[in-house]
Write a structure and sequence with these properties.
Two copies of one chain form a homodimer.
Chain A: H1 5-15, E1 23-25, E2 32-34, E3 40-49, H2 61-77, E4 82-92, H3 98-114, E5 118-126, E6 131-140, E7 156-160, H4 165-175, H5 183-191, H6 197-205, E8 210-213, H7 218-229, E9 232-236, H8 248-253, E10 260-264, H9 267-281, E11 285-292, E12 297-301, E13 304-307
Parallel strand pairs in A: 4-5, 9-12
Antiparallel strand pairs in A: 1-2, 3-6, 4-6, 7-10, 7-11, 8-10, 9-11, 12-13
Helix pairs in contact in A: 1-3, 2-3, 2-6, 4-5, 6-9
């Protein structure tokens, strides 16, 4: 590192200046102090680790900072809550310098501006690999958080946007070479994912019984909803919204799409939510099947059907 | 790792079960949901990184988990706030297994029990090194947070407990061999530090104008208070409470003691706080000097005096 910790902390405080009246004590003291919310407090944390979630060779500092915030905002959205404050525990290696770090924080601030939250604190450490551990707090009206466990037999299963784009984007980045037709949206999906905060609010208003963000792939995340609720699911292969340029396998198991997977009580709720999400955000909402009794997740494909294995992004899976 | 991520998450949920009525949604959903506090929300994050803050060879999983919580609780205490909830973003390497991880979480839960906070969420990732990034939230009555910037010329400078014990404990651990007389308290100071939550409340009640926890050494942390407040300080070398078995250098620059450094308006406040802290917690409070005009931190030693360099734990210092 080309700056001392004190110098870097000063630089960071400058990048992060501009906090609003809700921030009583911001970056630079032992802890941040912020105004309490009116509702319940929502808390989540997620880390991006070099070599596991990103490589310095293919990921820009700005995209990394942006994504580190967005993946946490997505978890807040999946509870139907609003994001409010962010903190970051940053581990920096000798591979990065002060300019890279300021860019990273610039990306974080950009994402915080987009989703209207404040970056109020952080911590710096040195280590052998870069790691960006972010915590985001949110707020939700008492009793209005949408959990995974509320899905009931008969509920419709819906998903926002399209799936597999992030995994396909990573494949494009690894392929290298000149960009082809259709590559750019896939790269955007991987490096600049979008958290569905407004869409989650619409789903909640339309009586969503369960919600999760698709961070580890449709198969695994749908199975998590089913396990939490003690139910099964039947989804139609043909209706899975596979991103243009992605494969079905990438849509089922790729992960990192940060779309919302939700269950709604009936077809009317799906129609209402679908129209409102399309009108307000230009985003599709697709009905892919229904919650059923039992524990299996079944995929139907015309006449045949098969059980969907809950596979997806497992951080601890042995390399195959 | 000898368990899949899903299996490990299930094991973790079992270790962390037992959350109270304040926890609306605990571990296992996209985010935790907790009851809001009555006061302002206090937020801090701090990471412990393998190779930088600990080595797997000398640190037990249980001590590591315990300390990862305590260092964050210490930051909450330094604002004169009460800790309430904790989150952990855990990065695990191939060097550790499920049993180690459960022990780590056991140490976290132990610390959470000691300081009356709930571990409500977390995240697991694989990486080349173990890293434990913890976020702790706290609560403080509106306007009652004690910042670093409030120190005024004429204020007394006090410190709780003794300094240098943690650095001396690390030295003892690296030395290895059989334990000698006096080693054990030093090892405790390093591996099982104590956060001064109750002591901070007493200092706040006695009109503390500024407070910081001594995480990076007295020299650096006192200079941070002086910079934040735009003042200088004069401290008496002979009055610095050096831990038995530690050197003066370890007390000034070793760090990780997690004692409180505070400024109080006058000698009467020091006496009152000192008596109360000794009676309630059996901990000494030592007057080591006073805040003065200017910007320098001066150490006096009988007739002579010298400027104290703000050196201490700098994560990005070039190895000397």
């Amino acid at each position: 590192m080309d700056l001392s910790e004190e110098d870097l902390l000063s630089a960071i405080a400058r990048v992060l200046s501009g906090a609003g009246p809700e921030v009583v004590v911001g970056v630079g003291d032992d802890a941040a102090v912020v105004a309490p919310g009116a509702g319940q407090l929502v808390l989540t944390t997620d880390a991006m680790v070099e070599g596991t979630h990103f490589s310095l060779a293919t990921t820009s500092a700005r995209d990394l900072g942006h994504k580190a915030i967005v993946v946490n905002v997505s978890d807040i959205a999946a509870m139907a809550a609003s994001p409010r404050f962010a903190l970051c525990a940053l581990t920096l290696s000798d591979s990065v310098d002060a300019a890279w770090t300021i860019e990273l924080l610039g990306g974080m601030r950009e994402a915080c501006n987009e989703y209207a939250l404040w970056l109020v604190g952080g911590n710096l450490a040195a280590g052998p690999q870069v790691s960006v551990a972010v915590t985001v707090t949110g707020e939700v009206a008492p009793g209005r958080a949408v959990k995974r466990s509320g899905a009931r037999p008969g509920d419709r299963i819906v998903v926002t946007g399209s799936l597999g784009g992030s995994a396909a984007g990573l494949r494009v980045a690894h392929r290298g070479g000149p960009l082809k037709e259709g590559d750019r949206p896939l790269l955007e999906a991987h490096f600049r994912p979008v958290a569905r905060v407004g869409e989650a609010a619409v789903l909640s208003q339309n009586e969503a019984t369960a919600m999760i963000d698709v961070s580890d792939g449709l198969s695994l995340d749908l199975s998590r909803v089913c396990v939490a609720a003690g139910v099964g699911a039947r989804i139609r292969m043909a209706d899975i919204p596979v991103a243009a340029g992605a494969t079905l396998e990438e849509a089922l198991g790729g992960g990192e799409d940060y779309e919302l997977l939700a269950t709604l009580p009936d077809a009317e709720a799906v129609t209402r939510a679908s129209v409102e999400i399309k009108q307000s955000f230009g985003v599709a909402l697709t009905d892919i099947g229904e919650i059923v009794e039992g524990a299996a997740v079944i995929v139907t494909d015309g006449a045949s059907e098969r059980a969907l294995e809950p596979t997806g992004w497992d951080h601890f899976a042995a390399p195959s």
